[in-house]
Automatic annotation (TrEMBL):
Organism in which the protein naturally occurs: Pseudovibrio ascidiaceicola
InterPro entries: 2-oxoacid/accept_OxRdtase_asu, PFOR_II, Pyruvate:ferred/Flavod_OxRd, Pyrv/ketoisovalerate_OxRed_cat, Pyrv_Fd/Flavodoxin_OxRdtase_N, Pyrv_flavodox_OxRed_cen, THDP-binding, Transketo_C/PFOR_II
Domain Pyruvate/ketoisovalerate oxidoreductase catalytic: 34-221
One protein family per Pfam: POR_N
Protein known as: 2-oxoglutarate ferredoxin oxidoreductase subunit alpha
Domain Pyruvate:ferredoxin oxidoreductase core: 530-611
Top-level taxon: Bacteria
Location of the Pyruvate flavodoxin/ferredoxin oxidoreductase pyrimidine binding domain: 274-439
Keywords for this protein: Oxidoreductase
Length: 631
């Protein structure tokens, strides 16, 4: 795996500026889904990462493939928090909003802080577009934006002028207005356009005319900022590189990190990776990333449906590969019977669930973490499997390795619960050092010797059965969905044997519980008045809010679960040391319900199912209310 975007740790010389240095700036691009918003945001994120800033991003897609142009539902957005200090969230309030049409302004104006900067394409503010967005009057003229710093620009017209000499039609020229906008924003952040120009040349190397147009638009936007007489209240942002550990970094999103981690895990297990899936939002990029690893030996397979995808992955595991399949909640529902088959056959299989809003089709492009019940209990019969969850995009690589290790060590299917925010958000990621003991190989020992071979004989420590690859001499055996006789693996309808095999499958989780590390406290004291317990993508806002509360002298701790099932063996003891335990979740209290079913301890639940992660201020309010009530 090569670094697509290396991040230097050297000090950068910045031009002299009269503006004060700031710790972080939150910027949001918004426009129609066809305006190239995601590309624009991603380029700024990679430019910031290359410069050495810490970053956190939040892409926000329309739910419809092609929502009506100019409507609120058709708005696409990309939020980016660029910092000199540690950045863990995309930010509660926006410092600068780039709105390329009235609908974008209306949808995201509420999130802009007082005196924040609004960069607006006034060419898009036609009477029809203003009405379509739901404004009763032109917000540029009715005084409703008086509490903001407004920079009204003819972005579309300026783009057309910049590309006039190319001979492109006005329609084709307008497609580059996102690059003009990016050039201006790069100027605001005191950054050059060189990195983006290099990316454009690579991206459109087969279409030199398109590359030229985009580079010209990018340079024109940057030059506009340089030579124009902008209002005095429009200041530039000066953000120094973040003090990071020495090493090579790249910007990575959760889907990329998970794919790389699964490949690394298979390699450390001395296995080939097989990834079978069917396209579904927001898990599809997993397949795209694994496909790019073809030259390194990874096998990717796009099946005709969800059931075929997981059955192919099970077949790959039976054949001696590390079988992996990925989907989102609706697809996981279709895979349910096959997951039971993997549990019955006791084969190593990794199932990645990139959660989205539900139920049913729900909110396809919005994030949620409401599939915990589905992951732990969502199968017929007593069919246990381990469940783990990364906390942020940069952790997905290690969670992929952990998934491979647990699945092969214990011969079990395993589910990884990512979510739409983790999958699409980007963050700096330090390239792993494979000399680190954390990445010590764990080569799988597959059965070779026929003497004493019993396909369903279980290791007393790991509860794994032998992994006999088809074609190995004298190790013939059968697998399938019917109950197996302990030891021989023959089909058995005997009640006593079914009782025994049910217990053996449950004992796999007991063995895993002994192998996972004890739960630790992320920040704060190990006992005290309040613990905020989270899992998945609630990590960032909880981390920021809890640390701020600590600096104010409040007794609050942050505990974050990565192993959701089985739970860490010391969790009940740890949580019992706090007067109150509150769990913020992007669901209706699922982890709280799980803990209540397993522990004699009181936990409280706070839900947020709005299609976005928790905000820092929401967690801060939880802490304030809890400690205020207990004081």
């Amino acid at each position: 795996m090569q670094s697509g975007l290396e991040r230097s740790t050297t000090t950068h010389e910045l031009p002299v500026s009269q503006q004060p240095e700031v710790d972080y700036v939150r910027v949001r691009f918004a426009g129609d889904s066809g305006d190239g918003i995601q590309m624009t945001g991603t380029r700024l994120a990679e430019s910031a990462a290359r410069f050495g800033n810490d970053i956190a991003t939040f892409p926000d897609f329309p739910a419809d493939i092609r929502a009506p142009s100019g409507t609120i539902y058709g708005v696409s957005a990309y939020s980016l928090n660029i910092g000199h200090t540690e950045v863990d969230t995309f930010g509660d309030e926006t410092d600068a909003l780039v709105a390329l049409n009235p609908a974008a302004l209306r949808k995201y104006l509420e999130g802009v802080k007082q005196n924040g900067l609004l960069i607006i394409d006034i060419d898009a503010f036609t009477e029809r577009a203003i009405t379509k967005a739901g404004f009763s009057a032109n917000p540029l003229e009715d005084g409703s934006l008086s509490s903001f710093r407004v920079l009204p620009l003819e972005i579309t017209s300026n783009t057309e002028k910049a590309l006039k000499e190319t001979g492109l039609s006005a329609k084709d020229a307008r497609r580059s207005k996102n690059m003009w906008t990016l050039g201006l924003v790069l100027w605001l952040f005191e950054r050059s356009t060189a990195d983006v120009e290099h990316w454009i040349e690579q991206k459109f190397h087969k279409k030199p005319d398109v590359a030229k147009a985009n580079i010209m638009a990018l340079q024109a936007g940057h030059l506009y900022g340089e030579v124009s007489d902008l209002p005095p209240d429009v200041s530039r942002y000066r953000i120094q590189p973040a003090p990071l550990m020495e090493g090579e970094y790249r910007s990575i999103n959760g889907n990329e990190g998970m794919a790389y981690g699964l490949y690394a895990g298979a390699t450390l297990a001395n296995l080939e990776l097989f990834y079978g899936s069917y396209p579904i939002t927001p898990a599809s990029p997993l397949l795209h990333t694994v496909a790019k690893l073809k030259e390194l030996g990874a096998i990717s397979f796009q099946a005709e449906d969800e059931i075929a995808a997981i059955c192919a992955a099970i077949g790959a595991s039976y054949a001696g590969h590390l079988g992996v399949t990925g989907s989102s909640g609706p697809g996981i529902a279709l895979k349910t019977e096959a997951i039971g088959l993997a549990i019955m056959t006791e084969l190593p299989l990794v199932i990645v669930n990139v959660q989205r809003g539900g139920p049913s089709t729900g909110l396809p492009t919005k994030t949620e973490q409401s599939d915990l019940f589905q992951a732990i209990w969502g199968r017929n019969g007593d069919a246990p499997l381990p469940v783990i969850a990364p906390a942020h995009p940069g952790e997905c690589f290690d969670m992929g390795v952990e998934a491979a290790k647990l699945a092969t060590r214990h011969m079990t299917p395993l589910m990884v619960l990512s979510d739409g925010y983790i999958a699409n958000a980007s963050a700096p990621w330090k390239l792993p050092d494979f000399n680190d003991p954390a990445y010590e190989p764990f080569p799988v020992e597959q059965a070779k010797e026929p003497e004493g071979f019993l396909p369903y004989d279980h290791d007393p420590d790991t509860m794994a059965r032998p992994w006999a690859v088809p074609g190995t001499a004298d190790l013939m055996h059968r697998i399938g969905g019917l109950e197996k006789q302990a030891g021989s693996g023959n089909i058995s309808y005997d009640g006593e044997n079914h009782q025994l095999m049910t217990q053996i499958r449950a004992q796999k989780l007991d063995a895993i519980a002994k192998s996972i590390p004890p739960q630790h406290v992320e920040s704060g004291p190990t006992t005290g008045k309040l613990a905020i317990l989270g899992w998945g993508s609630s990590w960032g806002p909880i981390r920021v809010a809890a640390r701020r509360a600590e600096l104010e002298g409040k007794s609050v701790s942050h505990i974050h679960l990565r192993h959701l099932w089985p739970l860490p063996s010391n969790l009940e003891e740890l949580l019992s040391g706090y007067d109150r335990v509150i769990i913020p979740e992007m669901n209706n209290g699922q982890l709280a319900t799980v803990l209540r079913s397993q522990m004699d301890i009181k936990v409280e639940s706070v839900s947020c199912v709005k299609g976005r992660p928790f905000l820092v201020r929401e967690i801060a309010k939880i802490i304030e209310d809890a400690l205020g009530a207990s004081s």
